[in-house]
Every structure is written in C-alpha cells, then in structure tokens.
Amino acid sequence: MAKKTANASAYASAKTGGMKNFEERLGRLETLGEKIRKTDIPLDEALAAFEEGIRLARTLETDLEKIENRIEILMNSTEAPVTENPELELFDAGE
Question: What is the DSSP string of 2-54?
C-alpha cells in the first residue's frame, strides 16, 4: 500500500514539475509567461515554456475548483451552530 502512495506522490510531483504547493506553481506560471513574452527567446524554448505553462494552468485550475467546492461545503454546512456564549468549563477555576 505504501508503494502505491509513493508512486502517486511521485506522479503528482512529476506532473507539476516537482513543485508542491499552489503558490510555487503559480509563481512558476508567472515566470513562464514572462519568458514567453520576450522577443529574443528561441521558438523551441518558447514552445516548451508554453506547454509547461498549460500543464501548470490546468493543475492550478483543478486546485482552485477543489478549494471552491470545499469552501461551498463549509459555507453551506449546518453542523454545530455557533453560540454567542460558549461554555468554558475547562477554564473555570475551582467552582
């Protein structure tokens, strides 16, 4: 079972260029965009940067959809209503 998890992690890491968190991947996408906009970049490098950028954009879009779904679930959850005066029995000293 651990081997499957390791393989899945390796695949996910390879799929995103080894970058783990959202901010790193977004930063990389911005860097690629700047690189592509340069006029002195060879066509093969521009194409490779564009392809990597498309892959990153798709993974970032998927991540954002997951985050939006999670927020929607949290916002629509009716579990545990918030009380104005929470009970703090643990903090009452010697009653």
Answer: HHHHHHHHHHHHHHTTT--SHHHHHHHHHHHHHHHH-TTS-HHHHHHHHHHHH
Distance, C-alpha 23 to centroid of its chain: 7
Residues of the chain under the 50 pLDDT cut: 1-14, 16-18
Residue 90 belongs to a domain = no
From the list 24, 17, 18, 19, the residue with the least C-alpha distance to 55 is 17
Give the pLDDT score at 5. 40
Whether 40 maps to a domain, the answer reads yes
Could you list the residue range(s) of the whole structural domain that residue 33 is in? Answer: 18-74
Inside any domain, residue 2:
no
Would you state the pLDDT for residue 89?
63
CATH number at residue 36: 1.10.287
Average pLDDT of every residue of the chain: 77
